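Hey,
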Amino acid sequence: MKIIYKSIIVFLSIFLFLVLYLSFFGLETKKFNSQVYDKVKDINKDLEIDLNDIKISLDLFKFKLVAKTIGPKIRHKDKILDIENIKTQISLKSLLKDEFSVENLEISTKTLEIKKLVSFLRTLKQKPELYIFEKILKKGYLIADIKIEFDQNGKIIKNYKVNGLVRDVKVEVFKTYNVKNLNFVFKLDSTKLSLQNIKLRFNDLDFTSDKILTKFTNDYFLIEGEINNKSLKLDQKNIELFIKPYFPKFEIKKVRFNSKNEFSFKLDKKYKFK
């Protein structure tokens, strides 16, 4: 009995040590690299990924292993995106049944130049709107956290979520209209895009908005929100641009005003709006 008792104590001590070690320190391995690689391919078959070792740790509260790799790079042709980390959760139950598969991915980006991101996306899809946006975009930066889930067949479930921050964007259209110092927080899923805490400077005029919401349907986008300004002064240049075309007979030299505007419109797939 003493031998059995001591064996149980030793076994429990080793098990407890492994649990604590995995919970606080984890271990590094390349064992799960191929599964993460395959899931990135499921997102887009043309993507390549450079992975470092994956660190495995234990989440006792969820009874799952957490696999995380730091500093991977996603490549397509000669374009590269630097990623902060990629993380996935692995069910211990599936491991015990030898049915391991990656069911989700959580991707956190580094600070990305939006112009380089658009250029990267254009290598995947040659859409005219991406080309136009790349031309009018002068600068800007983006940080995002992306959550993706896969079904039993490895296909992406349409419940993905992307949360992030856009800052210091500058856009210029024909040198007539320019937006700079554009900053906002965004949340994107399969049904809507929400922009919050928006600040921008349009033709040297300051505007803010608490929220702008875009809802997706099969036929159109519904865009609604508000935009405010506290105290604007229109000089002669902006009067010629914004007022003269609509009120040509008015001799206005200077305008000062504040406003709060609510708007809503539908934009179809051909970029016509109501």
